[in-house]
Amino acid sequence: MSGTYTVVRTLGRADVAHDILEELPEWFGIDRFTHEYVEAAAKFPNYVAVGPESGIGPDGGAVAFEDVLGVLLLDQRYPTSAEVHLLAVRRKHHRAGIGRTLLERVENDLRAQGVRLLSVKTLGPSAYDPGFDQTRAFYTACGFHPVEEFPDLWADSPCLLMVKVL
Ligand SMILES: CC(C)(COP(=O)(O)OP(=O)(O)OC[C@H]1O[C@@H](n2cnc3c(N)ncnc32)[C@H](O)[C@@H]1OP(=O)(O)O)[C@@H](O)C(=O)NCCC(=O)NCCS
Predict the structure, then answer these.
(1) Is any atom of ligand 1 closer than 6 Å to the C-beta of 27?
(2) From first to last of its 166 residues, what are the pLDDT tens digits of the chain?
(3) Alpha-carbon dihedral angle through residues 56, 59, 63, 67, given to the nearest 10 degrees
(4) Is 60 close to ligand 1, i.e. is its CB under 6 Å away?
(5) I need a surface site. Which of 14, 52, 120, 123 has the fewest CB within 10 A?
(6) What is the atom index within ligand 1 of the atom nearest the CA of 28?
(7) Whose CA is nearest to atom 29 of ligand 1?
């Protein structure tokens, strides 16, 4: 699969996340979170992986949401750190390197800006959930380290903070 998609950075495209999230109910099954992510896509930088037929422009403006194979929303609150706010890849393209490629592109851009730390919050291991076992395996394979599980940060689920030094 490597080489058959391109990663582009866009801004203000709320629609890029919605379709993919609906496809992945095991991870994004709660409506209010999906709504929050779609709103976040409108304000955070989006990195999207698109297929070869997308006809995308350099700013991502022309991409149709059905051409988006994966999306990463980046939240940067401080000059030297940033957070992966959302990362999702269409189910039929899982395990084809798209998630890793999206992260690598983000990490390269952040390093160039002097950012030193990338974090992500995901479901902690004390909640039984095979889907999120895979999610944590992915972040571990991409160089993230677990820091702490916070039982009360989120209303219903334990939150695991993972970090990567860039
Ligand atoms: C997690 C996710 C973004 C990973 O993207 P992906 O494109 O499928 O992952 P990649 O192909 O880039 O995988 C990179 C490496 O991560 C690890 N990995 C990925 N998926 C894995 C799985 N299901 N089980 C174990 N390890 C896995 C592997 O080491 C893999 O390398 P390899 O295939 O050479 O062995 C994607 O599966 C997804 O959208 N999952 C549902 C939503 C989600 O969990 N989002 C994150 C919420 S915080």
Answers:
(1) yes
(2) 445 888 988 877 777 788 888 889 899 877 667 788 888 888 888 899 988 766 665 555 566 767 889 999 999 999 999 999 999 999 999 999 999 999 999 999 999 999 999 999 999 999 999 999 999 999 999 999 999 999 999 988 999 999 999 9
(3) 80
(4) no
(5) 52
(6) 42
(7) 141
